[in-house]
Amino acid sequence: MGEVNLFERLLVVVGLLSLLPFLFDILVIDAPNQASRKPKSGRAESKERRRIDAKRNHGLSQMYCPIPNISLDEKWQRYFEEAGRDVHECPKQRKLGVVVSLSEHEQLLVPMKGTCRKGALKFHYLDKSTFEFTSVVVEKEMLMPSDSGILRCEEEGNEAVTLLMHPIFNHEKYQRAKKIEEDLWKGGGDGAAKFKKYHEQPNILFIMVDSLSREQALRSLPVTLDFLKKGDKPGVGNQFQMYDYERFNVVSSGTHNNVPAYLAGKKYSDLQNWLDRDTNRSEEWILEEAGRNGYMTAFLDGEYVGSKSSLPRIRLKTFEHAEVPESTIKTARMIAEQMADHSVHSIFDKVLEWSSEPQLHSFGTPTKRLCFGGQSIFSIFANYVKEFWSSYSHVPKMVYLSVMDAHEPSMLRARQIDVELRDLLRSLLRISVLREIFVVLCGDHGVWYGEFYEDTKAGRLESKLPALFLLVPDEFASQNAAMAAYAKHNQPKLTTPYDVHATLRHIINLHKIGEGTPPSSPHALSLMDSFPATRTCQDANIMLEHCACTEFAPYDEELLNGLELRSLGGWAVEHINEGVQRSTSGGLTEEKTSCVHLEFGSNLRAESLETELLDDEVEGDSLVIIKLTTRGSALVTNETFEAVFVRKLFPLKEGLRPGQK
């Protein structure tokens, strides 16, 4: 029997912060025995004092774990103030073609004369029967074969491209939505009441700006937020109230955990146990549930399907693999197309492949907007949403729109879409005359790499606190007064993406009078329902290291370079190598990888838990974060990683004293 030391069982979460910021893995290791770190002088006494103070503050504020204020030092205040708000226009390029609507059922693709020689202009799109990309030569006007595609001139010296996205009216699915309305009307008994409620259900616009923290939204989207606070001109369009959830917390790391929490009520690790690969369960995927409740739905995602953190890849449980077979990508495309009545996602595989814009391939020009073929990608999405809204004006609609304009480390590019976002919301509010519109504007997390994150406490705190703004229409609020009152009252409380999922389910099931809303996860609460007076990160199912209520204390220089922390850094690098091996070999550890083997360099910073949750006290040494460097080969620069170590204690076996196994 060996001693159980401080780090007997460690959960290591390793995130690459420089070369591949999208790579994130979760690994479990058994650490060799090391002597546990001696507590800092007076630490136990200060912990007890903080615990007593926290309980006293809890009695006054009725809130658990108050989040520290986010304050910027002079350097970063000046950085954001001096960055300016110049709008960078997309490079001028003549369109290769346009789409003309003949009727709500037919749209014509019209090539522009003189842009490409005869026979060289092709329209590339995803074939919905094979889920492979195909192309057709465009020499004259033709019916649009797909919702989205790329016109490309394939003559030497002419690399012009045009991205075309236009919803093609789906009569069959529109009739499905209308039949729900008819069935409610003919239902007898409470059918009339349900029919009335169905007509009161608002349209839902869900805009997720990847990597948008609340603080970044306040800095980058002042025009949009000012419009949302003040509303449109009196008497024009819908009137509404905006609610700002300032204690909105991630549930875990990265897009792969937080987006499924929004759309399915589960983070990635839970999905792995929940999804059935054969049937791909969809009971709680919010767009599919909305479709079953009479909504016309659209799934619009600017991240390419091949990306390991794309939602189709997540649903296939292939997030861990950086490289997957083409057959897996085809299956991911199929899932993308089945996410909603209208889906625009797969085409971005081709957008990335054929783009000459450097900001689509890297973060080299972060302050400039995302463009393709001379057009702002956000504006192309916005036009699609407006056309979708107009096409299905007589039934409820739900759109999920995910954009990548804040996913870069300068924290400045999101400013480029501010006016366009305001204009999109204004347009939809004005044309939603038959139904009101409920808007969710949020991020999945803040930026968690780059200088601001790595070098400032504010940056690390922002990464855990994404934006969440809700627009509740006045008419909806007047007919659902209690729900609206709760939405307002819950603003200062600890909330999560799980709660947004529960809120959306609450809304789309409103017409089921007497049936009640289907149950969500126990840790998911509708923002438009009662919240407990005290809620901790444990209650909300937030991983401790991602809870914004926790604070960390730095190790001093002597301990940072001591044997224990250097050993931990070395173990982390070993498991980075193992994770890269699995990712690049499709999970086959015996396969060789062409990636460079990394070696531990040095520890740059280390912190341990400084505060604890009241209901679940945790020793400070049970969670340690280390920022470290690695060495590769002469051809590879040193890289920076961050590792999170969490002590996992085994239950004691009968007859053994603590400290033995």
Automatic annotation (TrEMBL):
The keyword Iron does not apply. Gene3D superfamilies: Alkaline Phosphatase, subunit A. Keywords: Membrane, Transmembrane, Transmembrane helix. The chain crosses the membrane at residues 6-29. One of its GO terms (cellular component) is extracellular space. This is Uncharacterized protein. The keyword RNA-binding does not apply. Signal peptide: none annotated. The lineage of its organism: Eukaryota, Cryptophyceae, Pyrenomonadales, Geminigeraceae, Guillardia.
